[in-house]
Every structure is written in C-alpha cells, then in structure tokens.
Write a structure and sequence with these properties.
The protein has a two-stranded antiparallel ribbon. The termini are far apart. The longest helix is centred in the first third of the chain and has 31 residues. With 298 residues, the chain is mostly helical. The protein has one domain. Helix content is 73%, strand content 3%. Belongs to the binding-protein-dependent transport system permease family. LivHM subfamily. It is found in: Cell membrane. It is a multi-pass membrane protein.
Length: 298
C-alpha cells in the first residue's frame, strides 16, 4: 500500500513539474509555429536567478515566508525580460521563414544562453534548500511527503486554469485564438499579430522560468540542467500533440506516472519509461493525442 501511495504522489508531483515546463513550449508552437529549443535555457535561467535572489534574501535575514513571494516576483520579471529580449531582438526578424530554420536559430540561442549562464554564474553549484524544507512534511497514507511538492501540484493546477481562462475568456486570448486559425486574415481584420506573438512568447518563457524557479530549491543548480529539460518537454508535448494545451496536461500525466511506476517498480528503466510511452502513443496516433486538425493549402 505504501508503494502504491508513493507512486500516486510521485507521479502527480512529476506530472505537475512536467506540465509547468512543457506548457510554454506547446503554447509558443501552437501560436507561432516555433519549435523553441531555447526553452531549456529559459528553465536554467529561472533556476539560477532564483538561487541568486534567494541567496541575497537569506543573507539579509528576512522572514522565510517571504521567500515564496520573492520566487514569484523573480519568475515573472526574469521570464518577461528574457522572453521579450529574445523575441524582439532575434525572432521577430525571422517570422514567415521555414520552420527548420527557426529550429536551428533557437538551437543557436540555446547554446548562446547556456554559455551566458556560465559566464554570469560560473560553473559552481548553487544550493537553496530552505524553501523546500520550510513547510516540512505531511503524512499521507502512512507516507511522509514534502508539503513543497504538493504546492508544486497546486501551482500547476492554478497556472493551467489561468492559462485556459486567458485563452478562452480574455479579449487578448480570443485574438490569439484567431491568429492561430489564420494569421493573415487576423492581420487584415486589424489584430496586431506582432503584439500577439510578443505576448505569447513572453508567457511561454515565464512558464519555463517558473519551472526553473520552483525546481531550484530541490536540486543542485549546475550548468547543463536545461539540456535534459528540453528533451523531456518535447516528449511531453509530442505525446499530447504539438500546440495543444490540454495535450500538454495529459502528456505530462502520462509521462509523470510512467516515470513514477518505473522508479518504484523497475528502477533500471527509469530513463526509458517516458520515451516508451511516447513511442507507443506515436505508433497509434502519429501526431499526438490532441493534435489539431490542419487544413491543407492548395
């Protein structure tokens, strides 16, 4: 029974983390048709900025509860700044180009940002465990579990609902949906497509940065942490269907529980589990579970 409880809790936590990391990637592709390889570097920047900000915070002797407010502010500011700098400084000059070219450009950005992280923060590891330990643990089904991990699950749910509300209920979201359907007609109707792209990319970057920020207290923040993340994020969005927000959520759940079951039942296959799920899904549905039907232009 304890093992079942552990699988359920770990799968839920890992799925929540994967959703936070992957949803920005699928949002950017769905609106802008950009496979953003640099997404992993945004995650790493979030982790490093969080570690630095919390280091200053705790050195100043401020109340521990305020650390979570600092993490939220850091995620928002860093995500918006990095997203707008990359979109306005590089990507806006390449809109309308071949998707393969965009992949190469974002891969180059990933390499540049990875080196920039090393230049700014060096190659030493950063540890900021205090937020992870602050709330302690709670016993669930006889198993002690960190409250911080449960907070990540709650955060993923809140962020997912907020993103859905923005897309479905806000004026900007409805304009974004129109741009996804047909950007040329949307522009002809007076929608500022450039502004939609900039906003979308900034929001997608904020999600990646949030993933890094909430992960920083759980790990040693070291160079190269963005490499594995971008691979996992792509696996999740491919399972769910590129460009689908519900698909990112379902893909994260599939991947999260596949990993949890592998860790507890067959540890030797942990790294293989997520990609096995992806292979099975693609064998049945080559475009993912929730891939949008697209019209063919003649």
């Amino acid at each position: 029974m304890l093992k079942f409880t552990a699988i359920m809790l770990d799968g839920m936590n890992y799925a929540a983390w994967l959703f936070l990391v992957a949803v920005g990637l699928t949002l950017i592709y769905g609106v802008m048709r950009i496979l953003n390889i640099a997404h992993g570097a945004f995650y790493a920047i979030g982790a490093y900025v969080c570690a630095s900000a919390l280091g200053v915070f705790y050195a100043a002797g401020l109340p521990g509860a305020l650390a979570f407010a600092v993490m939220g502010v850091v995620a928002l500011i860093a995500g918006v700044i990095v997203g707008l700098v990359v979109e306005r400084g590089v990507l806006r000059f390449l809109y309308g180009r071949d998707e393969v070219l965009m992949v190469l450009v974002t891969y180059a950005l990933f390499l540049i940002l990875e080196d920039a992280v090393k230049l700014i923060w060096g190659v030493e590891s950063y540890f900021v465990y205090q937020p992870y330990a602050y709330f302690g643990f709670v016993e669930i089904g006889g198993l002690p579990y960190q409250v911080y991990d449960l907070m990540i699950v709650a955060l993923a749910i809140v962020m997912g609902i907020a993103l859905w509300f923005w897309l479905e209920r806000s004026r900007m979201g409805r304009m974004t949906t129109a741009v996804v359907a047909d950007r040329e007609i949307s522009a002809a109707m007076g929608i500022n497509v450039t502004r939609i792209f900039a906003t979308t990319f900034a929001i997608g970057t904020v999600f990646a940065v949030i993933g890094g920020v909430v992960t920083a207290p759980k790990i040693a923040v070291t160079p190269g942490i963005g490499v594995e993340v971008i691979i996992l994020a792509f696996a999740v969005v491919v399972i769910g269907g590129l460009g689908s927000i519900p698909g990112a959520a379902i893909g994260a759940i599939f991947a999260g529980y596949a990993r949890a079951m592998s860790v507890h039942l067959a540890p030797a296959y942990e790294l293989f589990a997520i990609y096995a799920v992806m292979a099975v899904v693609l064998a049945i549905r080559p475009h993912g579970l929730f891939a949008r039907a697209s019209g063919r232009k003649i």
